[in-house]
Amino acid sequence: MQDITRADVEDFLFAEAELLDEWRLPEWLELFTEDAIYYVPSTDVPADSSPDKNLFYVADDRFRLSERVKRLMKRTAHAEFPHSRTRHLVSNVRIRSRSDSEMEVGAAFITYRTKDGITDTYFGSNRYRLVAENGRLRIREKRCLLDSEGLRTQGRVSIIL
Amino acid sequence: MNAFQRMNTALMVDEARQIFKVSRQAFVDPDILEAERMRIFDKCWLYLGHASELPKPGDFVTRQVGGRNILFARDAKGILRAMFNTCPHRGAQVCREKHGNAKSFQCFYHGWVFGLDGALRSQPGEASYAPDFKERSTSNMQHVPRFETYRDFCFVCFDRNAETLDAYLGAVKEYLDIVGDQAEAGMTIVGGTQEYSMRANWKLLTENSIDGYHALTTHATYFDYLKATNGGLVPVPLEGAALDLGNGHAVLEYKAPWGRPVAQWVPMWGDEGKREIDRLYQGLVARFGEERARRIALFNRNLFVFPNLVVNDIMAVTIRTYYPHAPDFMTVSAWALAPKEETDWARKYRLFNFLEFLGPGGFATPDDVEALEQCQRGFRNATEAQWNDISKGMGKDIPAYDDELQMRAFWSNWNKHVFAASA
Fold it and tell me: Are B295 and B348 contained in the same domain?
């Protein structure tokens, strides 16, 4: 991981955002390692809380994340049918720490979701644990820390943040 | 007063012909919301919180209940206090944190300091006040008119003359007992609150929370997911009954194929889970006998307490309450309730289970939000397309969990309250 630059990480995160905005969720899922986790904690617990002890909004292991993707691609995922339109903006990208096998990355985000004439804004920071697999970056953990107080007025996290 | 209110009812009911309709004006009319504020939220017992949220003296939470800002604290003697979060001096909110632990509360505006029980302790420039100023009750933070608890469920009521909480809850108590009896050492709120909102009338969430009819269509993807988990389901059919508990309260009690942390095992939980679930079940049998143990362990309950409290004891236990801010907008708060002394395994799987279905990031609730918001959109046609139908199961002696008796119980009581003054 020592030779990976911030520009490499930014390219990776911008590509991730594009996959989400284009609803290419099965491809997006391929960015994750087989032991990956995806968390959206509730907003009144500390940032490093565990979903084993605290109620989150989302706490997916890799299996459930793959099921989330399957669900979102179905017509019967009513909250996202027809698909909302989204724009994931990624900024303030920083490599927080790195070891030989893994790096911790922080990035601020603003995500707009629009559907049925209503636009909601999600904002906060994403904390990633990234690894290199076969010369490519992969996500082992994505922890999405919302800055808002709860989900008022967004009401749901039916999209991937 | 508009034409709708002159009707003195929002319901069209004909038992013989199995007709039960609700006017869609009840979901869109601002005058109705005003009437609900005065005749329901100012009169009924409202859920404030769970005693386990304030384990130690000095613990507090601030919370909006029925449009008021409440400071809910455990005082130095360990007594729970529910106070209006406003300074008796000039009105500022005294406590501005959502939760924490304090030795006293200080209003930052002019520096008045209050004890954990709300009594005024000191204020700058005391010499300029009457000698007995601190002894006057009007110098203290004001307590809510009524504060009572049942099995750690804490309620407030803004009507000084209301019946007791015990009388108000009535038959609901049996179902809160079933929740409370799940753990010998008591139940606790787990850290983390789900706070969200819906662009929909609050009564739509009442209906939805006790609606067994929508499960298989609205939540098709949830059942797809359970099937995909390879062992997430057991061969138990969805079946059970709906009960009108009086006072507008209602419950669904039914069997379902999903795992329950207390205590229905599913193969996905493996041998470790089987041992744990068996142990929990045997504990229930030892404490309550086989029959009650079965009821606690193997039946699900969606409990509705009028007007806006839901305690769903399903694939996990959730407490949910919600308030209108406009006819087409509500805020929702939801918590997870769990046995205080459950094992790490059980807590982990309980929360994992919770998030599969429940909450705004789950595999089900977002679709409920969508359904309710789509209903609200549909009500834009309420001038011409005027009525909701909730007649399902009217002809039966014992309506099923997926009939609509429980909604009729809610609406009948709602109608009685809202049109009481003009009836």
Answer: yes
Tens-digit pLDDT profile for residues B68-103? 999 999 999 999 999 999 999 999 999 999 999 999
Cβ-proximal residues to B283 (8 Å cutoff; 6+ apart), any chain: B184
* ipTM value greater than 0.90: yes
> What is the CATH class of A6-146?
alpha beta
Domain holding B412, by residue range, is 171-418
CA gap A10, B350 in Å, rounded: 37
From chain A, the residues in CB contact with B218 under 8 A are 78
Tokens of A3: 């030779």
- Nearest CA to A38 out of A55, A20, A62, A17 is that of A62
Asked whether the beta carbons of residue A152 and residue B351 sit closer than 8 angstroms, the reply is no
The tokens of B56 are what? 């130690």
Residue pLDDT, tens place only, B268-289: 889 999 999 999 999 999 999 9
The radius of gyration of chain B's CA atoms, rounded to the nearest angstrom, is 23
Closest CA in chain B for residue A61: B352
Q: Please give, rounded to a whole number of angstroms, the shortest distance from the CA of B338 to a CA of chain A.
A: 11
Q: Please write the tens of the pLDDT for every residue from B102-158.
A: 999 999 999 999 999 999 999 999 999 999 999 999 999 999 999 999 999 999 999
Residue tagged 């996202």 (tokens): A80
